[in-house]
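pipeline stage [seq->struct] | target=5'-nucleotidase | organism=Pseudonocardia alaniniphila | residues=266
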Amino acid sequence: MAHSRRLRALITNDDGIDSPGLHALADGARAAGFEVVIAAPHVDASGVGGSVLSIRDGNRTRVHSRELAGLPGVPAYAVEGHPAFIVHSAGRGWLDPEPDVVLSGINLGANLGHAVLHSGTVNAVLAGLMHGWRGLAVSLDLTDPAPENPHWDTVLHLLPEVLDVLLAAPDPAALSLNVPNLPIAEVGELREAGLSTFGTVQVRVDHRSGEHGEVLHSESAKMSTPLEPGRDAALLAAGHPTLTELVGVTDRPGVLDRVAPSRRAG
């Protein structure tokens, strides 16, 4: 993608405008030569997937201009809406000029396996595909609660190489980068990875009754099944940053061809 101007990057996330990971990603994108504009949810919106929900008053969704520490002169907006809503808004007339790429993260925790379906961070870049934009979702493998000093520097060390891959990809393309929370010297080589069947966390939901009425009680636990060799969860656990190209919603022809003609005729 050759341009005579600087490429414009929309920086977003699902952890909210005040997340240090968002600020680190914006700083890294600026250092890589992008023109940066930041637009992120005004509060934590983790786990919203591809939702385009916003807090509306009629046709209006509130936007709050912000000045972020360490990012002087960078336009930044706290939006009362979910990440995919923000990206779609950027492609429906809000941002002029439109972004060339969507960079989402740095997420507080890995986004692995087919569980990326639920990630607001990942679905922000998948929403960008609908507008013809390349996108990169970036996640750091943090425990809960997060450590006091995450290795943002490790992510930013890898970022230029991964951005080169993104810009060399067919347009549009959506990539997901997961980085182990390790010092740069201890990180393995960047590996392409397929999606694990699930992620690394399993959620059990029980229907319970008590003094507060009937509830669905959720409890998370590490997966008890072995990690699948060569897949994202296993490679990340072994200390490798992983890169996966994701495909957005598409169609598969031939649905009626799988049914015998006599059955289709009734």
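stage status: PASS
auto-comment: The longest strand covers residues 201-210. The helical segments are 20-31, 83-90, 120-129, 152-168, 232-237, 261-264.
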